[in-house]
Specification:
With about 90 residues, the protein is mainly alpha-helical. It is built from two helices and no strands. The protein is flat, with a radius of gyration of 30 Å. The two termini are about 60 Å apart.
Length: about 90
Amino acid sequence: MQTPFRVAAVLVAVVGVVLTNAGSALADAPATWLDPKPTSTLHNLVFFGGSTVGLIVVITLFALVITRRNYTPPPPSTDVEVHSGH
């Protein structure tokens, strides 16, 4: 793929995204105008706090699984190697 084709592909993608996003700006009103059901403080804490704690648990479990496979070298030997002066 040569450079002009890459530039053309990027320009076509940018024009496509701009036209797609501009289409929603032409609407007179949103598709739904329903008010969302209000959430309580407890619901927000469970949702955001629970997702954060869940992410920490998943990362910790992944780290524990990965560390089980790490290589631990044997302890160093007490043998003394004598090198000649050459």
